[in-house]
Amino acid sequence: MKRIHFSLDLPKWHEWLIYASVGVLTFTGVAWLLLDNFGKVEGEFGPEQSPALPWLLLGHGIVAYVFLIAAGMLLPVHVRLGWNAVRNRVSGLTLVIVGAFLALSGLALYYASAEGFRGWSSTLHWVVGIVLPLTLIVHVVRGKGSRPAPPQHR
Predict the structure, then answer these.
(1) Which helix (H) or strand (E) holds 149?
(2) In which domain, by residue range, is 94 found?
(3) Predicted model pTM
(4) What is the average pLDDT score of the chain?
(5) Is residue 42 part of a domain?
(6) Using an 8 Å Cβ cutoff, are 81 and 139 in contact?
(7) Is residue 3 part of a domain?
(8) Rounded to whole angstroms, how far apart are CA atoms 109 and 74?
(9) pLDDT tens, 12-45?
(10) Burial of 29 (0-12, 13-18, 19+ CB in 10 A)
């Protein structure tokens, strides 16, 4: 029986899809947060929210779906093999937990109507969201540093 070899290395397109989606999510999330708190514009009846807020939120939501698909594609091979190889478990598990929390809290923000719940879940969502790119960087750096040396041929 022919044995199939799988690598923990992601195809470049997949790696860059993860990086790009996390980058756009971070940008749209931080831009929304700043505009929501500091970007009031002068309207006909006084200060009002920036007209960019709904567009940032729409872009953030669309890219969140892209990220969830790209991250979900990691589970059957990359996550399983990394776990079995006992490589980068802490940062990998942290990424999975952070991603799952952001997905669930994003759904809660979209569907929840209770103001008290929305307030603290919004704060938790953006605090954890700011941690996501840092967690990804740590995972990538640690992962590239923990690669086994290639076999020496003589």
Answers:
(1) none
(2) 12-145
(3) 0.85
(4) 89
(5) yes
(6) no
(7) no
(8) 26
(9) 999 999 999 999 999 999 999 999 989 888 878 8
(10) buried
